[in-house]
Amino acid sequence: MSILALETATEACSVAIILADGQVLSRYEYSPRLQTQLLLPMVDELLAEAGLTPSQLTAIAYSRGPGSFTGVRISAAAAQGLAFGWDLPILAISSLQTLAQTAYRLAGYDRVVSIFDARMNEVYVSAYQLEQGLMQALTPETLCAPDKLPELSAEPWSVVGNGGIYAEAIQRQWIVKTIQTDMYPHAYDLAVLAQTAWQHGHAQAPELALPVYLRDSIWQKLPNKS
């Protein structure tokens, strides 16, 4: 089993391949607005490094969102296009869960709130707790104002993601251990989550590779709309 993972939901771009023995190969670059130029060359590099051809892959996992509207579309479209071309199933993984998994791997956090700046004074947010090495959701993925965050248990939380810019509002509502705004979801961790998703039978047909925005009617909030 070898799963290719694509992550472009935020300002970073990353690709990973998880092999049958659990080894993960990855590429990562902080690259606002450059994901379209970087993503496919990263895929080619990793396949060459792993010594794999597309026909040897088991599935393609992608970051389904929520996140940057452009970034989420890039991830879903690339996964769908490659999956159709290579006749592979897809695995849709939450970008918020991926960030929580990244926070555990890089910083050892085991109780994490992933929070993205959704613009227009709103955030995408969900809370996670470590269970058997994987971050599991404690709250639904939510789009809300920074001063109306979901209720959490009265325990210290590690808050990660660029939505941490609303630190004052966050600290009024939660007990906060740390806020780290410069951490982004990484395809390495998406691949780890995707391996478990595959084992639990969550693979889908390529035509179901759809982005999750949480805010489907953004145009209705824009001024001077026609």
Please characterize this protein's 3D structure.
- The strands form 2 sheets. Strands 6, 7, 8, 9, 10 and 11 form a 6-stranded mixed beta sheet that branches.
- The chain starts with a strand and ends in a 27-residue tail after the last helix.
- The relative contact order is 0.20.
- Strand 10, helix 4 and strand 11 form a beta-alpha-beta unit.
- Helix content is 30%, strand content 28%.
- The chain has 2 domains: 129 residues, ATPase, nucleotide binding domain (Nucleotidyltransferase, domain 5, 2-Layer Sandwich); 85 residues, ATPase, nucleotide binding domain (Nucleotidyltransferase, domain 5, 2-Layer Sandwich), CATH 3.30.420.
- It is α/β, with parallel strands linked by helices.
- The radius of gyration is 17 Å and the shape is globular.
- The C terminus is likely disordered.
SSE blueprint and pairings:
Elements: E1 3-7, E2 12-18, E3 24-30, H1 35-50, E4 59-65, H2 69-86, E5 90-94, H3 95-107, E6 111-117, E7 123-131, E8 134-137, E9 142-144, E10 157-160, H4 167-173, E11 176-180, H5 187-199
Parallel strand pairs: 1-4, 4-5, 6-10, 10-11
Antiparallel strand pairs: 1-2, 2-3, 6-7, 7-8, 7-9
Helix pairs in contact: 3-5
